[in-house]
Amino acid sequence: MAHPASIRVEQVSKNFGSSNVLHDITLHVPVAQIFGLLGPSGSGKTTLIRMIAGIDDPSTGEVYVQEKRMPRLDMLSKIGYMAQAEALYSELTAKENLDFFATLFGLKGALRKQRIHEVMELVDLTPHMNKQIASYSGGMKRRLSLAASLLHHPDILILDEPTVGIDPLLRKSIWQELERLSSQGITIVVTTHVMDEADKCHRLGMIREGKLIAVGTPDELKQATASSTIEEAFLHYGSVQL
Ligand SMILES: Nc1ncnc2c1ncn2[C@@H]1O[C@H](COP(=O)(O)OP(=O)(O)OP(=O)(O)O)[C@@H](O)[C@H]1O
């Protein structure tokens, strides 16, 4: 076996009432890979990663994380999840918010203080540690959410459009951090609309209308469609009749 799978999605479909939003998705993500999910708005990316994070369950099929069938409460400590909508308390400061999440993850004492400082440093928010979230910009809230998802040193990091509203310089440093985390063995699943970010992923999955229409490295997807950029490859797959 070349690489053990960190995440296995096996023949997963998802219905909301009578509407079928994911169709028969099978996907394996090896340990330490940065896997990007690309697809138009409404194609099902968030629905899929919520099932990987164990927040929702499939209608049919199975999701395994570290070979444990999801959803599973004891896997939550292994997973860091950053949603599109911020789950922050606006009347509290950044530090108070992180203190709250740290408590949920059982981080205590000096270790907790140190970790809060590390993650705040990482997202470049240290000078704003004691400001109320109500005074934060959209980008600052995204950065704080990312910091919160990293607090407990998760093995698996699941990020739903983490860099929306973040300026290019900081986006670059966040991607450097994701690469560093991956080199330490952390598996990362990230949804994105930003094509230069897609190029930084080790492997990509393209989703359209709830179907996984292509999976491969950025180079493989470009070669398969005779494209010079991921954007072109994406447009190619988007125009193919399913
Ligand atoms: N709880 C729900 N109940 C009913 N329909 C839902 C629910 N959650 C998602 N959907 C529908 O499922 C489809 C896929 O939504 P999803 O949020 O997964 O797409 P997405 O690819 O993440 O989009 P975006 O890029 O805009 O975030 C959409 O048609 C959406 O309206």
Automatic annotation (TrEMBL):
SMART domains: AAA. PROSITE patterns: ABC_TRANSPORTER_1, ABC_TRANSPORTER_2. Pfam families: ABC_tran. InterPro entries: AAA+_ATPase, ABC_transporter-like_ATP-bd, ABC_transporter-like_CS, P-loop_NTPase. Keywords: ATP-binding, Nucleotide-binding. Residues 7-234 form the ABC transporter domain. The keyword Nucleotide-binding applies. GO terms for molecular function: ATP binding. This is ABC-2 type transport system ATP-binding protein.
